[in-house]
Design goal:
The chain has 421 residues and is an alpha/beta fold. It contains 15 helices and 16 strands. The termini are far apart.
């Protein structure tokens, strides 16, 4: 790490810590005004945003970025519209900061409750998509946090242009510029510095590929909110409604292949497999999904189903590939999910309340569903308005992380001269 990068990141960290004390006490009106003013600034700066993005796209092509990466990097008029709408939506969400719950009198006469408060300074490290700059900044600001944003080097010009609009919004609302800071250097040493400043940064949120998240999780000296894999399962129980099972298992896999909440493994009870797997396989084949199965699956569906290996059960494909296993019992399905799953999202299709309840209790994932597609595991679909990511950790935030996930609680106590006897 060069000394200049360390000095630069230290300055950002110190400024963010000071700004976090201002954002923590900012009024809801101030925060909303900043978000709405940033939305107006984005709308007014469309030409500048597209020009900056064109620089990034040209550099990306010159550096050999593939078409999928270039698509994620691209800002279009429709994506700018989405960013503007996103800011307006976050401004319309309830402000969690300062709410007090569970106030109660204790025998001593004091009142005790819990108040929701910001985490402080949130560092967000992400790749490719410039719109993440807006998503992250808006959620952190609305939840009363200061944030340091370190986007990918491939999007540096786009992120700077977006940051300029955010700064205009902050200035109009009378909030410090350091409430939202975008790291200007593309030196990778900046990431190493950001994740090792517990005196300035309270939590890190990595958004990107598995290698990035593994590196952050391994090297960070600051708590991390993250998920590594999205190995999601749908289990079709012996008591399932066949039509529901086919509809859900189709959607969970083929609605979109790349998201982390797409199904990667389909588990089917032996007692219903002959009724549900052939029509499902027909749907999957028609949509170009490659099937890999256990011996019982292959015996039922035919030789065009590839033999599933041990590695398949551990794999998040993010592609039109599906592993299928036929099982003898609910117990075996739960055991498979808890062994091979990534604690992200798993679903059971069943009409049995007892089986559904057992699945909900025993499957150790951040989202567990009954008769619903795993594709619903999303902050917007959960009514959070937006999300910063999905956490498969067990402490603090778990599942889609919205405004409340970017906050904490502290005990508040009210007395009237009370002393402890």
């Amino acid at each position: 790490m060069t000394e200049s990068v360390l000095d630069y990141m230290t300055r950002l960290g110190r400024a963010a810590r000071e700004a976090s004390r201002v954002t923590a006490r900012a009024t809801t009106a101030q925060k909303n005004n900043a978000l709405l003013a940033a939305a107006r600034a984005l709308d007014a700066a469309r030409a500048e945003l597209l020009a900056a993005n064109a620089q990034d796209l040209a550099a990306g092509r010159a550096n050999g970025l593939d078409e999928a990466m270039l698509d994620r990097l691209a800002l279009t008029p429709a994506r700018i519209d989405d960013m503007i709408e996103g800011l307006r939506q976050v401004a319309g969400l309830p402000d969690p900061i300062g709410t007090i719950r569970d106030m109660r009198y204790l025998p001593s006469g004091i009142q005790v409750g819990k108040m929701r408060v910001p985490l402080g300074v949130i560092g967000i490290i992400y790749e490719s998509r410039p719109n993440v700059t807006i998503d992250a900044a808006s959620l952190c600001l609305k939840s009363g946090n200061a944030t340091i944003l370190r986007g990918g080097s491939e999007a540096i010009h786009s992120n700077r242009a977006i940051a300029a609009c955010i700064q205009l919004g902050l200035a109009e609302a009378g909030l410090p510029a350091a409430c939202v800071q975008v790291v200007e250097t593309t030196d990778r040493a900046a990431v190493g510095a950001l994740i090792a400043m517990p005196e300035f940064v309270d939590v890190i949120v990595p958004r990107g590929g598995k290698s990035l998240i593994e590196r952050i999780s391994r090297d960070a000296r600051v708590p991390v909110i993250k998920h590594l894999d999205g190995i999601c399962h749908v289990y079709i129980d012996v008591a399932a409604d066949v039509d529901k099972a086919i509809r859900v298992a189709d959607n969970a896999k083929t609605h979109r292949y790349a998201p982390c909440n797409a199904m990667e493994t389909l588990l089917v009870h032996e007692g219903i497999a002959a009724r549900v797997l052939p029509p499902l396989a027909e749907i999957y084949r028609a949509k170009g999904v490659e099937l890999r199965g256990c011996p019982r699956t292959r015996a039922l569906l035919g030789a065009d189903v590839l033999e599933a290996t041990e590695q398949d059960w551990h794999t998040e494909y993010n592609a039109a590939i599906l592993s299928i296993r036929v099982l003898d019992s609910l117990e075996e399905a739960i055991e498979h999910i808890n062994h091979y799953g990534s604690q992200h999202t798993d679903a059971i299709i069943t009409e049995s309340f007892t089986d559904a309840r057992r699945f909900l209790t025993e499957v150790d994932s951040s989202s567990v569903m009954v008769n619903a597609s795993t594709r619903f595991a999303d902050g917007f679909e959960y009514g959070l308005g937006a999300e910063i990511g999905i956490s498969t950790d067990k402490l603090h935030a778990r599942g889609p992380v919205g405004l409340e996930g970017l906050t904490s609680e502290k005990y508040v106590v009210f007395g009237d001269g009370h002393v402890r006897g």
